[in-house]
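INFO  loader      accepted 1 record
INFO  loader      residues=205
INFO  predictor   begin
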Amino acid sequence: MPRISAATVADHRANQHAALLEAAREILAAEGVHALTPAAVGARIGLARSSVYRYFASTADILAQLVEDAFPRWSARLRAAIAPTGPDSSLPGRIRAYGRAALDFVGSPDYALIPALQAIGLPGECRVRVDELHGALIAPLADALREAGADHPALRAELAWGVLRAGARRLMPDAAAPDPEPAAANADADDIIEITLDVLTRALR
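INFO  predictor   done
INFO  writer      dumping tokens
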């Protein structure tokens, strides 16, 4: 029986689950979805495969749990970024703060979830849940636009997310999108962020 290193069995299981999720996030970010298996996750923290299956039924289950862990955290971060309490409480200033927080997602290990979800087939109910959580990422922007009196705020926010996704693709280390402008292809990360935020705020005027 595994040694219990917490005050209660429930605490021990919660700690072990958190450690497994962190190990899964590291494997996904460093090696990709094809390296992500219950056995690999358990091996990273020294837990037998049979014990790992108490927490994860499959690779798809690991991804689903990573999404449940990551997306609400980023949703809260985006909502805090766009709240009218920062140094620039104007709508353009709030939109820029939201956009910058969204682009921060690209540099985090959580971003590896995006290509992973595209590469692996999730069960239908999991896909519905992923769509719900993705909607929660866009909701803070839609709410801010609605409060400002914009028409069709949900549509505007969804389209604006497309701008952020395009900027995010440029920020990826292995981005290989064709670019007819050599100068744009050589843009550094700061330039990409500033251009993306500029386009975002202009699009939502």
